[in-house]
Protein backbone atom coordinates (compact mmCIF):
# COMPACT_ATOMS: atom_id res chain seq x y z
CA UNK A 1 0.00 0.00 0.00
CA UNK A 2 1.26 3.44 -0.86
CA UNK A 3 0.56 6.09 1.77
CA UNK A 4 1.52 9.75 1.78
CA UNK A 5 3.02 11.15 4.98
CA UNK A 6 2.76 14.85 5.76
CA UNK A 7 5.32 15.99 8.28
CA UNK A 8 5.08 19.13 10.41
CA UNK A 9 7.63 21.86 9.65
CA UNK A 10 9.67 21.26 12.81
CA UNK A 11 10.23 17.60 11.85
CA UNK A 12 11.15 18.27 8.23
CA UNK A 13 14.89 18.69 8.92
CA UNK A 14 14.92 15.00 9.93
CA UNK A 15 13.55 13.94 6.53
CA UNK A 16 15.72 16.04 4.25
CA UNK A 17 13.54 19.15 4.41
CA UNK A 18 10.59 17.45 2.73
CA UNK A 19 6.99 18.20 3.68
CA UNK A 20 5.47 15.10 2.04
CA UNK A 21 6.80 11.70 1.17
CA UNK A 22 5.47 8.34 0.18
CA UNK A 23 5.87 5.19 2.25
CA UNK A 24 4.65 1.62 2.05
CA UNK A 25 2.73 -0.27 4.69
CA UNK A 26 -0.52 -2.01 5.57
CA UNK A 27 -0.86 -0.41 9.02
CA UNK A 28 0.03 2.92 10.62
CA UNK A 29 2.96 1.25 12.40
CA UNK A 30 4.32 -0.29 9.18
CA UNK A 31 4.15 3.10 7.48
CA UNK A 32 5.96 4.81 10.35
CA UNK A 33 8.57 2.04 10.41
CA UNK A 34 9.10 2.49 6.66
CA UNK A 35 9.64 6.20 7.33
CA UNK A 36 12.22 5.33 10.01
CA UNK A 37 14.05 2.97 7.64
CA UNK A 38 14.40 5.83 5.16
CA UNK A 39 15.23 8.43 7.84
CA UNK A 40 16.69 6.74 10.96
CA UNK A 41 16.77 9.97 13.00
CA UNK A 42 12.98 9.92 13.00
CA UNK A 43 12.95 6.86 15.26
CA UNK A 44 13.82 8.84 18.38
CA UNK A 45 11.40 11.59 17.30
CA UNK A 46 8.46 9.15 17.10
CA UNK A 47 9.07 6.15 19.38
CA UNK A 48 10.30 5.45 22.89
CA UNK A 49 12.91 2.78 23.65
CA UNK A 50 10.16 0.12 23.78
CA UNK A 51 8.84 1.01 20.33
CA UNK A 52 5.71 2.76 21.60
CA UNK A 53 4.60 5.99 19.98
CA UNK A 54 5.72 8.91 22.14
CA UNK A 55 2.94 10.46 24.23
CA UNK A 56 3.30 13.84 22.56
CA UNK A 57 3.11 12.55 18.98
CA UNK A 58 -0.22 12.56 17.18
CA UNK A 59 -0.73 10.68 13.95
CA UNK A 60 -3.80 11.40 11.85
CA UNK A 61 -5.08 9.02 9.16
CA UNK A 62 -6.74 11.13 6.51
CA UNK A 63 -7.91 13.52 9.23
CA UNK A 64 -8.81 10.99 11.96
CA UNK A 65 -6.46 10.69 14.94
CA UNK A 66 -4.71 7.35 15.51
CA UNK A 67 -3.84 6.88 19.18
CA UNK A 68 -1.18 4.44 20.41
CA UNK A 69 -3.79 1.69 20.75
CA UNK A 70 -4.75 2.26 17.10
CA UNK A 71 -1.25 2.28 15.64
CA UNK A 72 -1.78 -1.21 14.24
CA UNK A 73 -4.96 -0.18 12.43
CA UNK A 74 -4.95 -0.73 8.68
CA UNK A 75 -4.39 2.04 6.17
CA UNK A 76 -5.77 2.20 2.65
CA UNK A 77 -3.92 2.94 -0.54
CA UNK A 78 -3.85 6.71 -0.92
CA UNK A 79 -4.40 7.52 2.76
CA UNK A 80 -2.56 10.53 4.15
CA UNK A 81 -0.81 10.22 7.50
CA UNK A 82 -0.08 13.51 9.24
CA UNK A 83 2.48 13.57 12.05
CA UNK A 84 2.26 16.34 14.65
CA UNK A 85 3.61 17.05 18.12
CA UNK A 86 0.95 17.72 20.74
CA UNK A 87 1.94 20.83 22.64
CA UNK A 88 0.47 21.58 26.03
CA UNK A 89 0.90 24.27 28.56
CA UNK A 90 -0.93 26.45 30.89
Task: Describe the overall structure.
The chain has 90 residues and is of the alpha+beta class. It has one domain (2-85): Beta-grasp domain (Ubiquitin-like (UB roll)). 18% of the residues lie in helices and 28% in strands. The chain has helices spanning 28-38, 42-46, and strands at residues 2-7, 20-24, 57-61, 64-66, 80-85. A 5-stranded mixed beta sheet has the order 2-1-5-3-4, covered by helices on one side. The longest helix has 11 residues, at 28-38. The radius of gyration is 12 Å and the shape is globular. The relative contact order is 0.27. The model has no long low-confidence stretch (mean pLDDT 88).
Range of helix content: 10-25%
Helix count equals: 2
Q: What does the average pLDDT come to?
A: 88
Shape: globular
Rg is: 12 Å
From the coordinates shown, what is the CATH architecture?
Roll
Amino acid sequence: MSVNIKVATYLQPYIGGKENLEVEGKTVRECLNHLVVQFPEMKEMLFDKDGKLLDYISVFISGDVAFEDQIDNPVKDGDILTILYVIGGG
